[in-house]
Amino acid sequence: MRNLWSPLNQPIHDWREKRVWIVGASSGIGLALAKALLEAGAYVTLSARREAELREFAAQYPKASVVAFDCIDPQIWPSVLDATVAAMGHIDLVILGAARYDPTNSWELNVEQVEKSFELNVVSVYRALACLVPYFLARQSGGIACIASISAYTGLPRALIYGATKAALNNLVETLYFELAPKGLNVYLINPGFVETPMTAANDFRMPSLISAPRAAAHIVSGLERGQFEINFPKGFASALRLVSRLPYRLRFPLLHKMTGL
Ligand SMILES: NC(=O)c1ccc[n+]([C@@H]2O[C@H](COP(=O)([O-])OP(=O)(O)OC[C@H]3O[C@@H](n4cnc5c(N)ncnc54)[C@H](OP(=O)(O)O)[C@@H]3O)[C@@H](O)[C@H]2O)c1
Question: Active-site residue 43, yes or no?
Answer without folding.
Answer: no
